[in-house]
Amino acid sequence: QVQFVESGGGLVEPGGSLRLSCAASGSIFREFPMAWYRQAPGKQREFVAGVTQGGITDYKDSVKGRFTISRDYAKNTLHLQMNSLNPDDTALYYCNTRPSIRKYWGQGTQVTVSS
Predict the structure, then answer these.
(1) Average of pLDDT values for 55-84?
(2) Which of 10, 16, 38, 57 is 20 to 30 A from residue 109's alpha carbon, by CA?
């Protein structure tokens, strides 16, 4: 059974950093490109960053140069290093395959950027 469990969110001041983690069970982590998504209050869920099985990455324009996605095959874990955070980054962050598979959405981890 596939499951994604996100962690690492929290409250941080503008300019601060957070590192999100997504623990993945099942073989799907190795078989698919993976991505981070986010959903801010009142908005649709959106793509943030993606990484292929071979390590090729791409990012939403507004996070380029600030966020870094990585995957650890030894630990079946996806990470998102977020630097220079600003209030527009406030959202519930999720990991999933790319493209996403509906039944694999987890609970997400909340990131709040506020002074």
Answers:
(1) 97
(2) 57
